[in-house]
Write a structure and sequence with these properties.
The chain has 205 residues and is α+β, with helices and mostly antiparallel strands. It has 7 helices and 4 strands.
């Protein structure tokens, strides 16, 4: 298997953490994509992922899988170890729901703020920006912080009592927020405590 990504970017980070949780990092060949010079928009990469985004998982038979949730689901069902996406129907549904909320309410909102309301990746890559929309999404991200702080006031992890893909997504979203200079308010102590706990996991370290 191959994974096309950019080390340190938020979405590739999600996949790398999942691989580490499954003790499968050495089962994958990582291929760096030069996003800053537009490699992701070239025809060879577009053929693998028309959305022109990283990461992309390429299987040995040539099948290409994009979208982090799909990649992590494949990883979770391919390798032994901790279940990241749930085992029972209820677990899978709750985890999927909370993963999507972490994605839309934090990670995607922060990404939109970064790409629209700041200089983002620079004028060569940010070919269209809507600052008003970006700032609105920054507000959405802050509301997402509050939502997850409330959830974590009663839950050990985002989707319940065990670590899952939902935690991976939220953790990556908060890392992106740091980069975009959207700070977690100090009063969100449950979210801050959870973040420190996740940061201490071997897969994250």
């Amino acid at each position: 298997m191959k994974i096309y990504d950019v080390e340190g970017f938020p979405n590739p980070l999600r996949v790398r953490i999942a691989l580490a949780e499954k003790n499968a990092v050495d089962k994958v060949d990582f291929i760096a994509i030069d996003v800053m010079n537009g490699e992701h928009r070239g025809d060879p990469f577009i053929a693998k992922n028309p959305a022109a985004s990283v990461p992309v998982l390429e299987l040995d038979d040539g099948t290409c899988i994009a979208e982090c949730s799909a990649i992590i689901e494949y990883i979770d069902h391919t390798f032994d170890g901790i279940s990241l996406t749930g085992r029972s129907a209820k677990e899978r549904a709750v985890i999927s729901m909370m993963q999507r909320r972490a994605e839309s309410m934090v990670l995607d909102a922060v990404a939109t703020y970064f790409h629209h309301a700041t200089e983002g990746l620079g004028p060569d890559l940010e070919t269209y920006q809507n600052k008003e929309w970006g700032n609105k999404q920054g507000e959405k991200a802050l509301a997402g912080f509050k939502y997850f702080n409330d959830i974590l006031s009663t839950n050990a992890y985002v989707a319940g009592e065990t670590f899952t893909v939902a935690d991976i997504t939220l953790f990556a979203g908060l890392g992106f927020a740091d980069f975009a200079k959207i700070a977690i308010p100090n009063e969100y102590t449950h979210l801050i405590t959870w973040r420190a706990k996740v940061a201490d996991r071997p897969s994250v370290k």
